[in-house]
Task: structure prediction
Amino acid sequence: MKRENSNFKKTGQIHESYFEHMLEGMRFKGNPMFTEYELLFNEFFALKQHVDELDRDKQSLQTQLAEMNRSLDLASRIDPMTGLANRRDIVEKIERELNRSKRHKRTFSLMLLDMDNFKLVNDTHGYNSGDDVLVEVARVLRSCTRNEDICARWGGEDFLFLLTETAIEGALILARKVLESISMTEFKVNHPGIRVTACIGLCEYQKGQSVYDCIAAADQALRQAKRDGKGCFSVADS
Result:
């Protein structure tokens, strides 16, 4: 159908000026077929205009479809509660960062954060208040990270950070900043406000690791931080 439309438009472009010249000329005025020819030309011209309108509509619909697809793709990568990246999005970005690190011989680090005793917040203040706290925690986490870093809601009250081109020393600086910011924030979801703490597990990418090896190492470090107490961090064994 696309080729037929193209051929139709091409034919119209070649012959339209010729047809108009014939209608404007005087030598066919007395021809009994001239009136019928004029009607056919007018029908042809109306049809051509209709095809042009359909082509414009098609282009507009294609643009709208592309925009909708981009919006849907973005929505599928965002956690609806916190507005942070979701699990799918950060895994894909870690995969890209891992490949980039292999090519350019650079490193990166991951931080996995879990809120301390968050079930107690839900049990004491209700799940709505618990959700409000998570939204505010997400705001605090965004304020602590660089534009080039990614902070995602990993699930529940867990958050995963991808720190691009960052060795473990830089990740430790951020971990301390994040834990301090959370502990100093009073989350005013009701009166009085709620104070919470968190633990963090850190891992620097090691040669030969997969994406899930990195995440598993950060998770093991987080488990150790939890064993050490509230508001703690731990680094995965290299």
